[in-house]
Design brief:
This protein is 50% helix and 4% strand. With 475 residues, the protein is mostly helical. The strands form 3 sheets. It has a two-stranded antiparallel ribbon. Strands 2-3 form a two-stranded antiparallel sheet. Strands 4-6 form a two-stranded antiparallel ribbon. It is globular and about 60 Å long. InterPro entries: SusD-like_2, TPR-like_helical_dom_sf.
């Protein structure tokens, strides 16, 4: 994996350096170095960027763990008090999503069209690019709300000020795109193979990921469009979603040239700026959760989380273990565990999720999380028996258990906390906001470069504030 990842991504850097030195005339074209990047190289780079910045602990690029109050800060308190201005986080997140991820996939599609090869193989490659890009689009719309979509990525045709599309319309189109691409996958063929840094061309796994994205979109729609949510969720499950921990959309860093970004932020930097939060640790303590042994260290013989909001000195609280901070620890953006909780929620909402009960799916999700984290079987069984599904308050039951199980996967957990309103997150005393964030405000650069359109979007959604709820966050 180390050599493979290094050769693909460093190849991008080599291309950029050599291409800027060449003349545009045919006499100076180096036949050993392509002038157009192969689609597979762009695909690998898009995947790497998508995982790195969706998982990084850098407060400049990723605030999801603070929006869900999973981490506390040891050196400064800007992020835990929801200061989203000082470090320009909205601009950084917006640019990373559009420029480094969504655009990489779009350019890869363009380049793929001019490449030769087996039409079925090309169709599968296109499907992988499309599914990965839709996954990034979903992150963008669920982070900001209304965003540039239809007019986005059209700078080459002179579109430098794209209009903002309605978030619900984007959802509908993403579901349509997933339906279309699923119909074009040939399961008897592979996809990108070595350039696919997650599934290595296994189109059955790409199919299950696409259906799982459909399921997540559907569950988010449940309170605002229950009919569409039901048909979409049931179709996704019937077609086959992630079916084991081995199916999870997870990126394995090589631990050498390319290391897990949490390792970079918490270990390699020598800063140790974060500890697990008191809200997380207290809830796990109240449940005698065996995952604490895997995730955290003890301080004074107990698990102790740092207060969320005030400064939490590093040596006074439990630390996040190498399970998350190891150089080669994987970044998991869409897990089997999450899918099981989504299915349990679907049943609770009256959807047919393959005939299973909500209680059985809830229990399966708990077990999958225990297995994923290497918890001994006896400890896992005892925990599951002591904390069964509560049908009388299913939002609290699913919300709290999913929040714990998705620890360190801030974006995935954020959907649950916004949709279910559990666990109840308290706005810090010194918060810059009036409530815990429901969205990321728009990039300040948009107010300079695309003022008319971003202003119209801000007005439409009810104000460009972090407290403004997304269209699907109804209650």
């Amino acid at each position: 994996m180390k050599k493979l990842l290094s050769s693909i991504i460093l190849g991008v850097l080599a291309f950029s350096l050599t291409s800027c030195e060449r003349d545009i005339t045919s006499l100076n074209i180096d036949p050993k170095h392509p002038q157009v990047l192969p689609s597979g190289t762009l695909f690998a780079m898009g995947q790497y960027q998508q995982f790195y910045y969706a998982y990084t602990g850098s407060v400049n690029h990723n605030n999801y763990r603070f929006f869900t109050q999973m981490w506390s800060e040891t050196t400064y308190t800007d992020e835990v008090n929801y200061d989203l201005v000082t470090r320009n986080q909205p601009r950084n997140v917006f640019n990373r999503l559009y420029v480094y991820t969504i655009n990489n996939y779009e350019q890869a599609k363009t380049n793929l069209a001019s490449e030769g090869g087996d039409p079925s193989l090309k169709a599968n490659k296109y499907a992988s690019l499309e599914i990965a890009q839709i996954f990034a689009w979903e992150q963008a719309v669920d982070t900001f709300g209304d965003i540039p979509y239809t007019d986005a990525l059209k700078a080459s045709s002179g579109q430098f000020a794209p209009k903002y599309d309605d978030a619900k319309n984007i959802y509908v189109d993403l579901i349509k795109r997933l339906n279309n691409v699923l119909g074009n996958i040939n399961l008897s063929k592979s996809g990108y193979d070595k350039e696919d840094l997650v599934y290595y061309g296994d189109m059955s796994k790409w199919t299950r990921l696409a259906n799982s994205i459909r399921l997540r979109l559907a569950i988010n729609l449940a309170d605002t469009d229950p009919a569409l949510a039901k048909t979409t969720a049931e179709a996704a499950v019937a077609s086959g979603v992630l079916s084991s921990n081995a199916d999870s959309y997870s990126f394995h860093f090589d631990g050498g040239t390319f290391t897990n970004p949490v390792f970079d932020d918490l270990v390699a930097s020598g800063r140790y700026d974060f500890v697990p939060s008191q809200p997380v640790v207290d809830l796990m303590n109240s449940k005698s959760d065996p995952r604490r042994d895997v995730w955290f260290t003890k301080i004074g013989g107990v698990y102790k989380g740092g207060p969320f909001g005030p400064l939490a000195p590093y040596n006074s609280y439990s630390h996040i273990s190498s399970h998350f901070t190891g150089a080669d620890a994987p970044a998991n953006l869409f897990s089997y565990v999450e899918v099981l909780f989504l299915k349990a929620e679907g049943v609770a909402r009256g959807f047919n999720m393959g005939g299973a009960t909500a209680a059985d799916l809830f229990k399966a999700a708990q077990q999958a999380s225990m297995d994923e984290n290497g918890v001994p079987a006896a400890d896992a069984s005892a925990y599951i028996a002591a904390h069964p599904y509560d049908a009388t308050n299913w939002k609290k039951s699913i919300g709290e258990e999913a929040w714990i199980s998705l620890f360190d996967r801030g974006f995935a957990a954020w959907n649950f906390t916004r949709r279910l309103d559990y666990p109840v997150l308290t706005n810090p005393t010194n918060s810059r906001l009036t409530a815990v964030p429901k969205r990321m405000p728009y990039s300040d650069q948009e107010y300079v470069l695309n003022k008319t359109n971003v202003t119209a979007a801000a007005t439409k959604i009810g104000g460009d504030k972090a407290e403004t709820k997304l269209f699907w966050d109804k209650f």
